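Entry 14. Two folds queued back to back today. First construct below, sequence then structure tokens.
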Amino acid sequence: MKPAEGRVHKKRVAADVDLSKFSDIFGIGPSNRTSSTATSVSRVSHSRNKRLTMPKRKTKTDQESTSDIINDINNAMKTPNEQKDVFKCPFCYETLIPPYPEELEKAVKKVKDKKVAYEQDQRKMYEERIYQEKAEGRVFIEPFMMHGDGLLEEDKKMICKTHKRELELKPRAREKGYPETIDFDKLASRIVAFKDDLLVIIDGKAESSFALEAKRVIEQVGANKARDTTEMMNQFEATLPGYYGMKGAEKMMETLCQLFLDKELTKQKCWPLKPIEYIQQVLVPECGVRLIQQDMEVESDKAKEIMKESVEYSLY
């Protein structure tokens, strides 16, 4: 192809450049090039000599591998903000936060120990099953799941009653001024001191609201109905001696039977109640009122009110 007219076509010629002229500026003269090459070779040789020998990777046994799987599953299922000291009642599911009163602390520890022992048994069975499944070549590994909590119904009711008594009823009782401790050994002598008052009631010379109520129930529902299980339980709770509770009622029954049964308590005086019913439904609550009067230094009406409202405290 001919060059265009009016233009001068010049052939490009590669010029030889003397790099030595720039050696002072860039440091790329012949001597440096040789030195750099030598240094590079030296570094490679040195790095080869210092190369680390890595230990061979240890192959895990089937038992170790199974253990890792179990740990991974369990770690994945852990709750990040899990509070180990917080306890949830297994009966009412109320969350209990420490510190606990001494009695509740003992009860919680007892329940926790049972649950831990049960979980350990469950985990042991799980690990044995996983090891067997892995040996059989199973791909899917089922995560560990607790089957129940290892507690009996009695255990659940026990801890529930304990925390209600220790965290709710006892503080409320202290606010109301109820006695925190009762000397049941002295109860018999205190009841004997009421003998004359009780004889006046037995002889019909003084009216008892408890005797009137017992007779009213029999007249309303009949003697047979009044003595069925449900009605007897209602009467039992209605005549409990307040915060003296069932233990106090038993002590009172024992002392009152020694004082009056087969002596002053005749069928005629007790009618329509039987003598033992009269002691339980009339004399026991009458003793309860008098004991509370002494404890709280209040009048009879106020003592009856306290006895009624403190029954819940006694049931726990």
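Second construct, same run, same settings:
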Amino acid sequence: MADFVKPFRKAIERVGTDPPAIVLLNKFALNITLNFVCNLRLFPGASDRLIAVVFDHTSEKTLLNSFPHLNVIHWPLLALADKFGPGDGRYQLFQYFRAKLAVFLTELVPSFWMVQADTIWRENLFELIDVDNGTNEYGRADLIFDSEGSDGLLSSMVRPHGILKFLNFSDRRRLFLRPLIRPKSHFFRLCLPLFAESLRY
């Protein structure tokens, strides 16, 4: 993961002082991601906060051709460039990668969002949930999670299928997160050593 420190620092610098929003995809989620970026452009500055982590060149090229302002980082994990779904090994690898990425990002940025492209925003999430206000429930939170469904944090969105996460980190919170990835790490060292090696951090 050390090879990706520089591109992430550059993308985070472009985002500015606001917490970036990370979205992960491959070419099989490309159309829905293009729609998602179009949706975010209804809200000034929202798409500027996106950092798209893509697993194949097709996604990288298409996103940059469609939205030149977008922050796109190509992370060439061949196993995640193919189609996958819940229950198969590639999906488990995706979950492991996302957890490792979260730990990795805590070393680069104080806080960040992790979003999915299968939700249509009717309001600007970054304004709806004010994480900079230390006097409300969100401003005091270390971690914010939302589950699938039309209630909770995503009640102002349409068809929220994905999970929304906000992570606000200090050294104490990093110590909390790191052990959470160990069981998945053990699984992939046993079952998918080549994939686990590519995620070494």
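Quick look at the second one. Confidence is low (pLDDT under 50) at residues 159-163, 183-201. Strands lie at 21-25, 50-54, 71-74, 111-114, 120-121, 143-146, 157-158, 164-168.
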